[in-house]
Design goal:
By secondary structure, the chain is mainly α. It has 4 helices and no strands. The two termini are about 30 Å apart.
């Protein structure tokens, strides 16, 4: 299997995983009904947890969009080239983070 096919499969796998995460986060970010008799402290914890899960949901949705873009650009001549330094992004980084558009050095 060539590198492009390997990357394409990895992107598709990551899209599925991210979609499952989004479903989970959507369930966890549903509004907390005021009539729930869970106690004031427990309610505050639930509200705090909801905001943490909301941030995770936003990040997962952004990642999903970036993965979909990466999948459409995999055949472009500049796919796998760092947007900043214009050097090739190592295959290991692309397989780990298929949505990456910069190398490790430029991402810092």
């Amino acid at each position: 299997m060539d590198h492009k096919e390997q990357i394409k499969n990895r992107i598709k796998e990551e899209i599925l995983n991210t979609q499952h995460s989004i479903e989970k986060y959507r369930e966890l970010t549903k509004p907390i009904a005021p009539e729930n008799a869970i106690g004031r402290i427990s309610r505050m914890d639930a509200i705090n947890n909801r905001s943490v899960n909301q941030a995770a949901l936003t990040n997962a949705e952004t990642k999903l969009n970036n993965l979909k873009v990466a999948l459409t650009k995999i055949d472009d001549v500049d796919f796998g080239i760092c947007m900043r330094c214009k050097k090739p992004i190592p295959l290991g980084r692309i397989l780990l983070m298929p949505q990456a558009i910069t190398c490790v050095n430029c991402s810092n």
